Amino acid sequence: MNNLAEKLEPFxxxxxxxxxxxxxxxxxxxxxxxxxxxxxxxxxxPTGTGKTLAYLLPLLNRIDPTLQSLQAVVLASSQExxxxxxxxxxxxxxxxSIRGTSIIGGANVKRQLEKLKKRPHVIFATPGRLLELIKxxxxxxxxxxxxxxxxxxxxxxxxxxxxxxxxxxxxxxxRQVVLFSATLKPETEQxxxxxxxxxxxxxxxxxxxxxxxxxxxxxxxxxPRDKIKLLEKIARLQDIKALAFIxxxxxVSVAAERLNxxxxxxxxxxxxxxxxxxxxxxREFRSGKLTMLIATDVAARGLDIQGVTxxxxxxLPRDVTQYIHRTGRTARMGASGTxxxxxxxxxxxxxxxxxxxxxxxxxxxxxxKGQIAExxxxxxxxxx
Length: 384
Prior knowledge:
By secondary structure, this protein is α/β, with parallel strands linked by helices.
């Protein structure tokens, strides 16, 4: 881990050696020294570039396990992201006596209160539930030295913003505030600066330390009513592990049911499912039992799922930012992936605009004999 390792506690150096990572990514190289110095940081870096470890290593390095107090809080907008980061914490805190716990909405409050009695040093939480417990004086924030906002642009939307601001205000003034996101709009950056003190702003546009995985951006033209038929063909592709996005939560179940009726192993993920249902869907998708997961953006935001081969836009993303975040679920850490957009002729113009804005080559495709093919392939076979 080059010179960075020398600045970290021995248990972290050992965890790094065991992890098999060779060199830190650009976001890790840039932000870890700043965080170790105690500076507030606002960081933007593409999906799949190692942002979680960029803040988790300095956080773990800062915890004093001999104290009984809560010393750090990590906030994320979805239950899934909280649990994902908590699992990383468990892996990297091995060999230390640092205690952590997760506090998420939708989970059993009594069980969470029991966890808090064990005096965690770090809490990983969704903002609404954590604020509730702070107001009830079940969580004491006065000794918190570090607050991390993961996927900060999602935490600073109107739905969460008030809770996040109140959580930050509940700490003493000398705490360190850290915000990470894959995309940082000017208005999000402004809100972030109001929470932090003289923050260092770090922007990584492209990570040269990660071998760039090849990402193909393809699209199919169809009528809205035919999108599920196309989705069925995609779900039948060999060795596929696809994350498919729908904008309207009410349509997720409809799409999944229609594909399950065709004996396809398809699951669903959205914010109205209970905690157990969401965990089961993710577990089965990760293990390969499900070959496709149909999801809303909120539920799948920030998830790191190994081996996603395809991202499918059943519905066109609402803006370029959403396109970037969805696309980032595949081709992570140098792997390759394919983006498939199912669009009407009217939506085709918008999709082309997104790809022009992002300087991404986009190619039209059809299905031919159950496989993705170029239109001229069909013509060649007709004329043969």
